[in-house]
Amino acid sequence: MSSTASWSYNKPCTLWKRIRDADGSDTDGGGQPYGFHPPINIMCDYIGGLSSKLSELGKGIVVKNTFFTAYADAEEGDYILIGTSTDTNPYNTKADEIRAFTQWNDTLDGVEDDWAIITGV
């Protein structure tokens, strides 16, 4: 992590990665999920947000969190929590499912790219 990132990404968060097979599937042949790897702690900064969605069914509110981090291995379907947890099941916590992530260049130090991990899209 660059010196700039270590200044900015100063809040611990917990991430649970889904267990996936060699093809990237997170379920077995019968549709049962494989579960999660043990939780890992990563350093982040974060911000919450609200947006509204309109459709023919009406208006809905979407609550999301965006986590800024140097951690590069998050994937859609993994779970993330503000704070630390040792619980092996993210469903027992208030963790949010990762729905999207974006990558951008570490312009200041050029050490490693930065990532935004987004929940609730």
Fold and architecture overview:
There is one protein chain. The chain has one helix and six strands; from the N terminus they run αββββββ. It has 121 residues and is mainly beta. It has one domain. It has a six-stranded antiparallel barrel. A hairpin with a 2-residue loop joins β2 (40-55) and β3. The chain is globular, with a radius of gyration of 16 Å.
Our estimate of the beta-strand percent is 35-45%
Task: Summarize the amount of helix as a percent range.
Answer: under 10%
Round the Cα radius of gyration to an integer and report it: 16 Å
| Structure classification | mainly beta
Major β-sheet, in short? 6 strands, antiparallel, barrel
Anisotropy-based shape: globular
How many helical elements? 1
The domain count comes to 1
Mean pLDDT: 88
Cα separation of the termini: 27 Å
The secondary-structure element order is: HEEEEEE
Q: Largest sheet, order of strands side by side? A: 1-2-3-6-5-4
Number of strands: 6
Which residues sit in consecutive blocks of at least 5 with pLDDT less than 50?
Answer: none
Summarize the structure.
The chain is mainly beta and 121 residues long.
